[in-house]
Amino acid sequence: MDPLTTEPLGDSEEEHIEEFDCSADVAGGTSSEHNSPKSSNRDCSPYASVIDMGDNVYRREEHYLGDNGDMSVHSNTKPIRFPGRVAGFRLSDGHKKSVQMQFEGRKFKSSAKSYLKKEKQPDVTAELTRCKDEDSNYLEFSDFGLQSLPTGIFKDLPHVETLFLNGNKLTGLPAGQLTGLPNLRRLLLQQNAIVCAGLLPDLAKLTSLEVLDLRHNRLEGDLPSCIYGLRGLKQLILSYNKIGVLCDDIKNLQRLTILIVNRNSIRQSIPNTIGQLACLTKLDLSYNHIQTLPASLGQCTQLTDLYLHYNQLTHLPESIGNLTNLNRLMLKYNRLVEIPESLAKCTRLDEFNVENNQLSTLPAHLLDSMSSVRNVTFSRNFFSVFPPGTCEQYTHVMSLNMDHNRITEIPLDVLSHLGQVTRLNLRDNEIADLHAEDLRHWDNLVELDLGSNHLCGLPDELEALKSLELFRLSYNQLKRLPSTLGKLQRLRMLDLESNQLESLPSTLGELVNLQDLNVVCNRLTTFPPSIGNLRELKVLKAGENDLTELPPEIATCGHSE
After folding, report:
1. Residue 559: what pLDDT?
2. Which of 270, 279, 404, 557 has the most crowded CB, counting CB atoms within 10 A?
């Protein structure tokens, strides 16, 4: 995690968020839900400061803003102790702003969540009256706590086009209940307890239905046949169920533009008849157990978004190259051993992510053909060399991630055309050297991660990285740093943990924007006096070194005017 950002509370696994449009002509509600992780907002007052030189800690008051808006104050102090000649050194007076060293933040989760929810009395009669009196085109029964629907509740409501039943405890829709809604276009049933047996054939009588949302229910096994009878359906959202099979009857849904079936239990291949969904623009099959895809998928030529990540795919059909309108193709976390050459025809892709597969190479010049790609991720594969292509294959790329591979070297000129790249991640490879010539072409890099490699030194031409703000070099074998390090005037974070540094260059003090410096687990005996010039420094991690003294100038760290 970037030390300069606040880590959101919640699960570390990134949630895929479904986006679909079913809000047209609807007042007073929305059907799309986004899982927005809660953030822990830290107070940036001078009272939030920690000093750490290993096990010896002095901590001042820490203020955090909890999720419920309450201010929590935690005070835990110990006398500061430094080894040897530095014992009793006073870093800052109580009234001064202290540099924060080794900040260990606590995260708070509020148990009082009720304030987030709209207070609502579940008055079904009142809502029906409102709808009829206003001749409204929607009925709002979301979060009413309904376990069943009263008999005749939807009688004579031809003007209703949208029905909100999400957030209840319904297990199904009783027979005949929806016949009074002949013009219903949007039926929102997410976050209930609906089972397959609860969706009766009557559902197929809703011939005007265009949007059906069944996210977060209890559908298991085969999808109920009545859904395949909704021939006017345009958007079908089935996320977070236990659906195991999509059958051939999916071909009946000829008007579908969006099909979301992520986070289910599909193990078999998708039926061949999916190729008959000629209007499909977005297909999300992520987070299932799918091993193969039918060649007929290539007939869905209107697809712009195809999500296949977190499955068990070992290969892709050659026909995928027919999907020339694709803007986004997500393939990460599968078992792919190769990528078809035909993918080169998908020239509109703006992101190419094959993280965590079993790839060791790519078709020649694949990236050269993807002139629209901005984000490229090859992380966690078996690459020992860079994918074949011209030196200009990354010309339009803005973010390139090749971390956690087996790259041993960066061939000269392979990364010499990174004109727009601002983020380069080569962490956890086997790189031993950097070419000075390459660095001259990395002048737009904002973030560079070379951690966990085999670097013993850095070129003097380091000053070419004039835009660099985040520089990660941890877990290498660096013995010295070039004096040109001080030329990186925009640097905000420098991570040198677990190297073999015995000293730091005096030019360190020229990094006037540095906020976070990590030199844990090196062989340092002191800091250069110029460290006192780091007036923006907020975090200094220096444990597990051989520090015997600190220059008095260190007291001015973090004291910006």
Report:
1. 66
2. 557
**How far is 128 from 138, CA to CA, in rounded Å?**
10
Q: What is the DSSP letter of 258?
A: E
Q: Given this model, what pLDDT does residue 361 score?
A: 95
Residue 430 is predicted with a pLDDT of 97
Rounded distance between C-alpha atoms, residue 512 and residue 258, angstroms: 51
> What's the pLDDT at 411?
80
Q: Which residues, 6 or more positions from 55, have their beta carbon under 8 angstroms from its beta carbon?
A: 543
What stretch of H or E contains 470?
strand 470-472
Calpha distance 379→401 (Å, rounded): 6
Q: State the pLDDT at residue 560.
A: 57
Q: Residue 554: what pLDDT?
A: 87
pLDDT number for residue 435: 85
In the chain the first and final C-alpha atoms are separated, in Å, by 29
Pair 463, 489: CB distance under 8 Å: no
Scored b (16 or more CB within 10 A) or e, 427-445 reads bbbebeebbeebbebbeeb
* Residue 529, Cβ density class (10 Å: 0-12 exposed, 13-18 middle, ≥19 buried): middle
Beta strands in 119-193 (DSSP E): 138-140, 162-164, 186-188
Question: What are the per-10-residue average pLDDT scores of the chain (561 residues)?
Answer: 35 39 38 37 30 36 34 35 34 37 34 43 86 93 92 90 96 87 96 94 93 98 94 98 96 98 93 97 98 97 98 97 96 98 95 96 90 93 89 85 95 76 96 88 93 96 95 97 96 98 96 96 95 94 91 80 48
Classify strands 220-222 and 235-237 as parallel, antiparallel or unpaired: unpaired
| Residue 461 φ/ψ, nearest 5 degrees | -75, 15
Beta bridge partners of 282: 258, 305
Q: Which amino acid would we find at residue 388?
A: P
User: What sign has the CA pseudo-torsion 318, 324, 330, 332?
Assistant: positive
Cα distances from 134 to residues 27, 128, 139, 157, 333, in angstroms, run: 12, 10, 11, 12, 51
Provide CB contacts within 8 A for 540, sequence distance 6+. Answer: 99, 100, 101, 102, 517, 557
CA distance 93 to 85: 20
What is the predicted pLDDT for the residue at 387?
87
CA dihedral 359, 363, 367, 371 (to 10 degrees): -140
The C-alpha atoms of residue 536 and residue 25 are separated, in whole angstroms, by 52
305: helix, strand or coil: strand
How far from 120 is each of 123, 126, 127, 284, CA to CA, in Å? Answer: 8, 12, 11, 34
Rg of the chain taking only CA atoms, in angstroms: 29
**CB neighbour list of residue 544: distance below 8 Å, 6 or more residues apart:** 54, 520, 521, 522
What integer pLDDT is reported at residue 55 of this predicted model? 41
In contact, 528 and 550? CB cutoff 8 Å: no
SS3 119: coil
Whole-angstrom distance, CA of residue 507 vs CA of residue 114: 54
